[in-house]
């Protein structure tokens, strides 16, 4: 993993841990309140309990921070992937151009080879004619 990703993961885990701790505190507070008692009776708070509201705000803020971290991470990853796609498009274009060049060069070499074969065939026919003629008397 890249250092920035490690840092994001650590930060996200810390925020998530804080959120879970606040949820546990809220569950403990809720469990301590009896059905016949007012919600703030066990801690000496009046209803509505300001501690509960403070806890809700802290929880909401932690969740928002976590969402922001996740959104930033997603945005960064999408940007990286878009850059990779752009690079691969350029690379693909370069490779297609190279392939077209190689094909044209291949066709040129094939044309030269065919012309070379025609020359060889013509020379072979000329040699065959010379060899098959009757010898000329040089008197």
Automatic annotation (TrEMBL):
<protein>
    <submittedName>
        <fullName>Uncharacterized protein</fullName>
    </submittedName>
</protein>
<keyword id="KW-0863">Zinc-finger</keyword>
<dbReference type="GO" id="GO:0008270">
    <property type="term" value="F:zinc ion binding"/>
</dbReference>
<keyword id="KW-0862">Zinc</keyword>
<dbReference type="GO" id="GO:0004842">
    <property type="term" value="F:ubiquitin-protein transferase activity"/>
</dbReference>
<keyword id="KW-0479">Metal-binding</keyword>
């Amino acid at each position: 993993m890249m250092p920035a990703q490690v840092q994001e993961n650590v930060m996200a885990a810390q925020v998530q841990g804080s959120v879970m701790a606040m949820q546990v505190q809220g569950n403990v507070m809720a469990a301590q309140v009896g059905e016949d008692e007012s919600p703030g009776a066990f801690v000496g708070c009046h209803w509505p309990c300001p501690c509960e509201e403070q806890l809700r705000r802290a929880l909401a803020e932690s969740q928002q921070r976590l969402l922001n971290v996740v959104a930033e991470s997603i945005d960064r990853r999408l940007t990286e992937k878009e850059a990779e796609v752009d690079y691969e498009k350029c690379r693909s274009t370069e490779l297609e151009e190279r392939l077209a060049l190689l094909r044209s060069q291949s066709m040129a070499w094939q044309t030269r080879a065919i012309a070379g074969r025609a020359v060889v065939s013509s020379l072979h026919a000329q040699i065959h004619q010379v060899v098959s003629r009757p010898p000329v008397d040089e008197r």
